[in-house]
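[Q] Does anyone have a clean structure-token version of this?
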Amino acid sequence: MNNRHLVIEQGGSRAILTGLGATLALRLSGLKQWSTIGGISGGAIPALLLADNADPLNLIETTMALDFMKLLLPAKGGSDPLRPFATELDGQRSVAHKFVARMLRRGLRHTDGLGELIDSQVKTWPEAFWTMAVSENSHVMFTSTGVYEYGFDGSFTVLSDEPAPLSLAIRATCAIPGLLQAVVYQGRYLFDGALSQFGSCPTAWVHKHFSGGAGTVVRVASTGKDSRKNAFLCRVGRRLLCRDSSKMDFKDEGKADIDINAHVPDVHAMRFKLTELQKQSGLIAGFNATVMELTKNHGLFQEGINPLTSCADFGHLLEMIRQCA
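[A] Here you go.
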């Protein structure tokens, strides 16, 4: 297998849908083997499902039937099913640097339902999968070989030589400050990976953690009417919670060989109550954007790829998947 890496960007509901559409196109093209498959925030979910080699038809059926809002219930009365894995002793808890940070940890909603869904769908940590969350002082990298912390001061710490629970890692990278409760791991309050100074699609981690500079890096992103607002909120969150992350230099590492960008104007990142048509449009946009970029860059894949055509509608997408099953 050639050395290649896939990174899927943040973007809430839109990232989940377009990311799933993109991974379906990658599978149908024959690109099933990857050195690493990573994502942050909403993009971590399709990255995980691709790394786990989930059945495409079952995946679409589950996505279309799923009420995203039921995964994010009001925080009052919510419990953390992963409490045994989260060190919360007072003597080990990070000191809160400011009142705003303490308030943003609470969140309006909890992600217990999201954790339960992940546990039901993926039983073991896929070897190639990774995701990342941020604390007030560091980036925390979750992988199949362990958990690693990159401090904003340049320090590096192995937090665990065993993988964390998958549901904890996904909940952590999706913890939007103020909206979704922060996830506690070894005394650190973890927030959405999109707050990273490495950007909304941190391809730099491929180079920084996995030494993947010699391979092919594929980036999957999405845009919509709310993209500017989301970028602004990420900047505000970064400034309030992890200002010192700006000390980290990554400009020469954050590159990709193939940029897949799906534009979906009718699916907003922070809206979780979606119609069937909105879900379909997100999946189709991710699929078609990937087909277009693979066609343009087929020469980067030495083993060759299966030729694909864009899908005209949702029925056409299902038909192509069934033919390749």
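[Q] Thanks! Anything notable?
[A] The two ends are 22 Å apart (CA to CA).
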